Amino acid sequence: MLPEKTLLPFKFDKKLLIDDLDKIYGDWTEHFVKDNYSGDWSVIPLRGPKGAVHPIQMIFSAPGVVEFEDTPFLKNCDYFKEVIDAFQTKITSVRLMKLGAGSEIKEHRDYDLDEENGIVRLHVPVVTNDNVEFYLNKKRVVMKAGECWYCRLSDPHSVHNRGTEDRIHMVLDMELNSWLKNLLLEAVM
Question: Is the CB of residue 77 less than 8 Å from the CB of residue 84?
Answer without folding.
Answer: no
